[in-house]
Fold this protein.
Amino acid sequence: MLSPEYLKAVPNELIKVYQEIEDEILLDIARRIARKDEAGYTSTYQLKQLLIGNKDFEELKKKLKPMLYHSDEVLDEIIENGIKTHYNDEQSIYSMVGKSLVNLDKNKAVLSQIQAYKKTMKENLNNLTKTMGVAVNDDFVNLNTLYKHELNKAVLSTGLGVLDSTTAIRRVVNNIARGGVKFINYEGSGRNYTIESAVGMVVRSGLNRLSGEVSLLNAEEMEQDLMEISAHLGARPSHSVWQGEIVSLSGRSGYLDLQDIGYGETTGFQGVNCRHNWYPYFEGLSYRSYSKEYLQELEDKKVYYEGEEYTYYEATQIQRQLERDVRNLKKRVMMYDTVGDKEMHAIESFKLKNKRDEYYKFSESIGINKRLENLGKFGYTKSVSGRSVWANKNVVNDKILKDIVNKQWSNEYKSKVMKTYYDFKNKGYTTDSHFLTNYLERRNHKLGNVEFNDVIKLMNKKPNYFQDLDKRFIYFDENLSMCLIQNSENKEFITFIRRKNLKNEWRKL
């Protein structure tokens, strides 16, 4: 029998292969956009040369080909190991009641079924690959279209002056990294699925169905009618009603039948993402694995987090969402690291650390094991992680940067304020978030526009006034109608004002 724990973890090795594929696609997109941006645009001809097209997409496909080939090898190994485990368990169970099940390598019917499922599951993965795409603004865009059209929007918008290059690149990265690479129309559903979800469904569902078919073949050979279903904590509500129960394959009264458990249906026993399995049950000889009290305990289990009550199943779904959030933030960190966007890299690194801490806290509080393998991203290497950790520390250890990233602002505005902070810091001056936002909003004013260098020139001078009430230095430029206020104790510039006249409370220095 394949246990619920086994079926939960069994897709992980293949998911890693497809995460490598996803990361190569995301980083390839980031590298190409960054390269196009660095090339610059000095003529219409050069702009046309920079557009992303068939050549770029064909280059990507060449990179992905060996990865996809490797995925077939990994899938073969998963199926062979899984069915060998399942078959040997059943062989052992039947031997306990004096029934002899032929060895797997001699069972032609089962071997034929294994080959058929291998072929089908590989076809399913191949079909997924053909529908591979990226979610852009919540719409699905296949990779070919993405490379030919969507990415060229960024190139054109910057080359034609519609958007500055930083904004264009950030829009592409945000749109793509938010959803990542997705597959569409799994089993005719028409829905978009993440790599982890799609590959997990193909492997988990296919292997579990195959094990169920093998059990039926064995039961027919052994003239076995009754099967006991496994049970696990966190089963979906529609499955909890029959988990741990006995099923009669012939439909005998007093037992559940195949229709009762939805066998053969996508939402039923051994359907999509189901982790329930079964094994022979011998009436009068076998002991029930699960008592009614235990099954009721599984169904009734509640967990509590920050004053809210959840069923165990609801808690596992929240945990899965937190895992997806962490992976998506890692995608953004990876892409911003690749394009060299210092501000957005710092913002997303800070968010990643907080989201990961939230995941740890939630898992520990409700007593569910952390699944660290579900937080992993192949392209999130030690070097990428190290730069992200360093960026987060820089934010956490700088009270002004920490204040900026904690504001209820858009990421775009946070990055703008952060960049301005660094601009002033590089000139030797510390400015708080209030000063920075006032500067950004008031530098272009009805009293006249001021440039960054105008502000620096005024900062370079000595303050010409002092406000005794709150001990503030005043830097006032009457010609530019500009006033800078500085904390006299820590020398931080705390606000930026546009005014023509002096205030009465300002004392001349």
About this structure: The longest strand covers residues 472-477.
